[in-house]
Every structure is written in C-alpha cells, then in structure tokens.
C-alpha cells in the first residue's frame, strides 16, 4: 500500500481549469488554458495540442524548469501564451480568428520522460457563436425580491407576536398581584361579611 501511495503522488497531472467548456465569438481570439503538475519535476517534457483527437495544432518541448518551452510545430493561427519558469507550468494557447469550423474538442497532452514517459491529458470543448446572448436576470431578481420580502414579513410577524405575548403575560401577572393583595386586606371599615365589624361580643356569664 505504501508503494501505491508514492506512485500516485508522483503521477503527472494535466488540467484545463474548473470548467472544460469555452464559448467564443466568430472571428474573435479565444484562450485555451492548460497547466500540468508533477511532484518529481520534468526534463525534456513534450506537450501537444490536438483538435478533435487527431489534428495536431501545437507541439512544443521543455528542457527543464529553468527554461521556457520551444516550438516544434504549430498551426499558423495558434499562439503559445504560457510559461513554465514561474509558479505554474502553464502551457496555454490562443486560437486566433475563430471560425464556426473550429468548434469541437481540444486536447492538451503532456509526456514526461523523467517519470518513465508518464502521459496525461485534459480536454476542452469549444463552442463558436455569432453573438453572445445576454442572460435576462429580471425574473430571477423578482423571485429573489419576493422571497426576501416574505422572509422579512415572517420575521416581523414573529417579533410582533413575541412582543404581544410578552405584554399579555405582564398584564396577567399584574392582575394576579392585585387579586392576592385584595384577598389579604382588612375589610373592617367596609362592614363586609367576615369583617371585624360583624364580630359579636362574647356572651355575659
């Protein structure tokens, strides 16, 4: 198991970022991102970009971490914009003057001889459109506003309810205090039943 963990740690990995889909306007330039990582470094590393798995559109090599990639072959409309001497091993490219026929799958493939010719790749799917469609967020904003308003009213109702219940409780407690106080009063002056005014003198012997 220990050897297996080491093998995984040393594995070459290639990434195209958080999403593997890109949309571009017709006749515009589009960035196709790609980076790679390796725990044991690289030497004479080879990277290649393919269109729809078969057509090579860029081919480059990197001697070591201290040197930038050099071009081996490329499509005239493809430009290398990455760098491998910094923190990230960036081997991104830009596809210029995008056409509708450029839509499809783009694969970034890396081979590292230092890792016993370990290979790995990542894929981007490019969509080409005539114009970008703006997303209408009006309905979403209305829904969010209504939901927020309802939540606000609910909170307000709960606060009012608590205040009313608090006032009612205080009022009831006050009435209880009055009743207790009244039951303990001396009613002699009022001449009420049970008062001292109605107490008869003891019979004479």
UniProtKB/TrEMBL annotation:
<protein>
    <submittedName>
        <fullName>SCN4B protein</fullName>
    </submittedName>
</protein>
<dbReference type="InterPro" id="IPR007110">
    <property type="entry name" value="Ig-like_dom"/>
</dbReference>
<dbReference type="GO" id="GO:0017080">
    <property type="term" value="F:sodium channel regulator activity"/>
</dbReference>
<dbReference type="GO" id="GO:0044325">
    <property type="term" value="F:transmembrane transporter binding"/>
</dbReference>
<feature type="transmembrane region" description="Helical">
    <location>
        <begin position="139"/>
        <end position="160"/>
    </location>
</feature>
<dbReference type="GO" id="GO:0001518">
    <property type="term" value="C:voltage-gated sodium channel complex"/>
</dbReference>
<dbReference type="InterPro" id="IPR036179">
    <property type="entry name" value="Ig-like_dom_sf"/>
</dbReference>
<dbReference type="InterPro" id="IPR013106">
    <property type="entry name" value="Ig_V-set"/>
</dbReference>
<keyword id="KW-1015">Disulfide bond</keyword>
<keyword id="KW-0325">Glycoprotein</keyword>
<keyword id="KW-0812">Transmembrane</keyword>
<dbReference type="GO" id="GO:0060307">
    <property type="term" value="P:regulation of ventricular cardiac muscle cell membrane repolarization"/>
</dbReference>
<dbReference type="Pfam" id="PF07686">
    <property type="entry name" value="V-set"/>
</dbReference>
<keyword id="KW-0393">Immunoglobulin domain</keyword>
<keyword id="KW-0472">Membrane</keyword>
<feature type="domain" description="Ig-like">
    <location>
        <begin position="1"/>
        <end position="125"/>
    </location>
</feature>
<feature type="compositionally biased region" description="Polar residues">
    <location>
        <begin position="180"/>
        <end position="190"/>
    </location>
</feature>
<dbReference type="GO" id="GO:0086002">
    <property type="term" value="P:cardiac muscle cell action potential involved in contraction"/>
</dbReference>
<dbReference type="InterPro" id="IPR000920">
    <property type="entry name" value="Myelin_P0-rel"/>
</dbReference>
<feature type="region of interest" description="Disordered">
    <location>
        <begin position="177"/>
        <end position="205"/>
    </location>
</feature>
<dbReference type="InterPro" id="IPR003599">
    <property type="entry name" value="Ig_sub"/>
</dbReference>
<keyword id="KW-1133">Transmembrane helix</keyword>
<keyword id="KW-0732">Signal</keyword>
<dbReference type="InterPro" id="IPR013783">
    <property type="entry name" value="Ig-like_fold"/>
</dbReference>
């Amino acid at each position: 198991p220990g050897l297996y963990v080491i093998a995984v740690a040393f594995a070459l990995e290639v990434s195209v970022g958080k999403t593997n889909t890109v949309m571009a306007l017709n006749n515009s330039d589009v960035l196709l991102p790609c980076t790679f990582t390796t725990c044991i470094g690289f030497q004479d590393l080879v990277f290649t970009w393919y269109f729809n798995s078969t057509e090579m559109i860029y081919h480059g090599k990197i001697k070591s971490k201290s040197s930038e990639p050099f071009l081996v072959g490329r499509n005239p409309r493809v430009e290398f914009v990455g760098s491998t001497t910094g923190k990230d091993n960036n081997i991104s490219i830009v596809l210029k003057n995008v056409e509708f026929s450029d839509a499809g799958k783009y694969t970034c493939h890396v081979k590292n001889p230092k890792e016993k010719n370990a290979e790995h790749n990542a894929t981007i799917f490019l969509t080409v459109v005539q114009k970008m469609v703006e997303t209408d967020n009006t309905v979403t904003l209305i829904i969010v506003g209504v939901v927020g308003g309802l939540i606000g009213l609910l909170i307000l109702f709960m606060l009012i309810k608590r205040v009313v219940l608090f006032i009612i409780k205080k009022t009831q407690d006050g009435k209880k205090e009055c009743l207790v106080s009244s039951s303990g009063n001396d009613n002699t002056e009022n001449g009420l039943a049970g008062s001292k005014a109605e107490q008869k003198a003891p019979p004479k012997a």
